[in-house]
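User: I'm writing a short report section on ligand binding and want a predicted complex to refer to. Could you take this sequence and beta-D-fucopyranose and write out the structure as tokens? A short remark afterwards would be nice.
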Amino acid sequence: MSELARTDFGDDFTWGVAHASYQVEGAWDADGKGPSIWDTFTHGKGRIRDKSTGDVACDFYHRYDDDTALVRDLGFDAQRFSISWPRVLPTGTGRVNRAGLDFYSRVVDSCLEHGVEPWVTLYHWDLPEALQQRGGWANRDVIGWFEEYVGVVADALGDRVKDWMVFNEPCSFMVVGHLAGVHAPGTRSLRRFLAGTHHVNLCQSAGASVLRAKVADANVGTTHIISPMATKADTPKHRRAAAALDAFANRIFLEPNFGLGYPTEAAGLLKGVERYFKPGDDEAIKVDWDFLGVQYYTRQQARPAPIPGLHAVPWIRHDYRNYEITAMGWEVQPDGLYESLAKVHAYDPELTLVVTENGAAFPDKVEAGRVHDPRRTAFYQAHLAEVRRAIADGMPVDGYFCWSLMDNFEWAEGYGPRFGLTYVDFDTQERIVKDSGRWFRDFLA
Ligand code: FCB
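Assistant: Sure. The structure tokens for the complex follow:
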């Protein structure tokens, strides 16, 4: 791999860091905020590995200005953050919580004062609990609720925010939250999953339309986790398993928006979505994105279902094929990032792509005031080389966001896995820039 230079990526390339409301803000019930499904989920028993919650997290709610100064100090152009829906609309619809909206307005101003572009995600998994009580994503009324919420945020921030992402990884919150029950709301329901999948896809286009109507020159996208599929053997059974898993993990939230329908031929189970179709949905679901966010962490390995005939249900495993393993148990496979970009690029060669998340957790330690994390630096270098290769091969990749600016609440895993370029001492809230953050500062300078 030849040495990386910022200039390899072009002058207009956006360098950013990403994080999300529930993972960093804390202040879970401050200033009129309503509870989200993640508040309910973490306050319930036995759901989070270290029994922690996001009640305080990184206290970004109070420290956003220093944290944004840090983004600039590390040399990044952009900060991607998300809006907590129940901070803005405590019960999901109706009454607006001014104080919550003002908080995000201050974050945007802080970004602009520090010369950092604000990139806003509208939904990074913290649905208002009040809406969950009304059926959440499984209730078709969610389309109207979501339009109302997006409208309120666009009216408040659209004069200053141009870069928008409607969702963060629909696949994760639908599959992991609604089908596997490992994330909030913690349901294991095929019905909720199938209905919710269709409604989320309709919300992607509905949210994009509201943004376009309200924000002049909006750059509107959404983000997807893309996980290329590997198999142990190249047999028809293995290929079928990989195709089914690919349909669930990668295709169900991408293809309907491109007007391609659901990939039912690869995963028969998805035929159940048809029950939730209404006349006109085929058209309403299409979106003409300005960009798509590709988020990549690792490849998955698909294996055939142990019971014949069940291959509609994908089976995933990592079998540690001589790859380096992160603290999440994920294999380090940089060329999978190239493959992920190529996969999305193939749908529409003109469409701009942005790597909206990429990063890794390693067991970091503070030693004499420093955090030496050479594995993370090597991870970033190897993945950036794959982005450079994608650009050289003609893919329109316009930006790259590290996950994450700082260590934060890693969902069901709690505070164990540290993904930050900055170490956070969760007792004192001290931030210590890791060696990987220092590497970025030099690289971007
Ligand atoms: C992604 C999520 C993000 C973070 C990283 C590690 O799937 O979007 O919030 O948890 O994984």
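A remark for your report: The chain has one domain: 6-444. The domain at 6-444 is CATH 3.20.20.80 (TIM Barrel).
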